[in-house]
Amino acid sequence: MTRLTTSKKIAIKADGDDFFALKKLAVSLWGATEIFDECGMSALLTNDGTLLELYTSYSCFPEYFFKDNNCVITYKVPDIQLALKEAQSIGLEALTAIIPVGGVMQYCHLKLPGGMVIGLYQETDI
């Protein structure tokens, strides 16, 4: 698996004209390069290292992902286990365990008290 060094991930659910407008905006204003486009999901990497994931209603994503909001921001942390422990100590609910991805990263999702979902991820050494 190829490593993408990113500063954060922003996942947005949008349909129709909004989906295509966000995609065009990312390319023309933020200098994004499309790195994936399939089955109603596009991933674009911006010049500042942000991974922008655009989802349509018919693409695959976890059921909880866009339940209360159409945007999920995932933050890079140096130590995901410590960050998860800290988040839980202040009342955030873990929606997933820490999930490894191909030896290059691991992530988890949390629910804020009001229902909004955020993510944490840590890049790992190969």
Outline the fold blueprint:
Elements: E1 8-13, H1 16-30, E2 33-38, E3 41-45, E4 50-55, E5 71-76, H2 80-89, E6 93-94, E7 99-101, E8 105-111, E9 117-123
Parallel strand pairs: 1-4, 5-9
Antiparallel strand pairs: 1-5, 2-3, 3-4, 6-8, 7-8, 8-9
Commentary on this structure:
A hairpin with a 2-residue loop joins strand 2 and strand 3 (41-45). The model has no long low-confidence stretch (mean pLDDT 91). The protein has one domain (8-123): 2,3-Dihydroxybiphenyl 1,2-Dioxygenase, domain 1 (Roll), CATH 3.10.180. It has 126 residues and is an alpha+beta fold. Strands 1, 2, 3, 4, 5, 6, 7, 8 and 9 form a 9-stranded mixed sheet that branches. It has 2 helices and 9 strands. It has helices at 16-30, 80-89, and strands spanning 8-13, 33-38, 41-45, 50-55, 71-76, 93-94, 99-101, 105-111, 117-123.
Short description:
With about 130 residues, the chain is α+β, with helices and mostly antiparallel strands. Helix content is about 20%, strand content about 40%.
CATH architectural arrangement: Roll
Q: Report the order of strands and helices.
A: EHEEEEHEEEE
Could you please say which CATH topology applies here?
A: 2,3-Dihydroxybiphenyl 1,2-Dioxygenase, domain 1
Termini separation comes to: 10 Å
CATH superfamily: 2,3-Dihydroxybiphenyl 1,2-Dioxygenase, domain 1
Counting helices, strands and paired strands, the structural category is alpha+beta
Poorly predicted ranges:
none
Helical content class: 10-25%
DSSP helical segment count: 2
Largest sheet: 9 strands, mixed
Overall shape: it is globular
State the CATH class: Alpha Beta
Number of strands: 9
Number of domains: 1
Rg over alpha carbons: 15 Å
Q: What share of the residues does DSSP label as strand, in percent? A: 35-45%
Mean pLDDT: 91
